[in-house]
Specification:
The protein has 4 helices and 3 strands; from the N terminus they run αβββααα. The protein has a 3-stranded antiparallel β-sheet with strand order 1-2-3. The chain starts with a helix and ends in a 42-residue tail after the last helix. It has a domain at about 25-100: 2-Layer Sandwich (Ybab, Chain: A), CATH 3.30.1310. The chain is α+β, with helices and mostly antiparallel strands.
Amino acid sequence: MAEILDGFRDQMRTITALQRERAALTASATVRGKRVTVTVNADGTVIETRFGSGIEELEYSEIAKAVTEAAQQASAEVARRSRDIMAPVSQNRNRLPKLTDIIPGMPDLSKELAIPEPPVVSTAPPKSPERLGGFQDPGPDAEQPRRGGATDSGW
């Protein structure tokens, strides 16, 4: 049991160190001939957007697409690097004994307690055909239900 606890403590120290390393990650992507560069943090949140020389040659819609494209590329890169950093956690977890190995007769609940894989998150724009299959956000320009005005008795 002492060996198992030591292994658990080592695993927790490893996880803490890897989480710190992951938290420091950033990734950048540059598109449209070095005209648009986006940098994201470890969570994929945009932390910097830079426009290079020649940006004025692009239309607003092209700039918007370029920013989106660069942000998606940078987010994918930081996610890949995060998985690489956290890979030792999975490897160490597989080395630890299972509860069924320690307690005789204990049923193996690993499949029942496993966290399901999350669905793939879409990177499609809000009104694209890919998104129209599910819930649709009417957006800020949609007509809103009429509410009472300042003369309404609810005031």
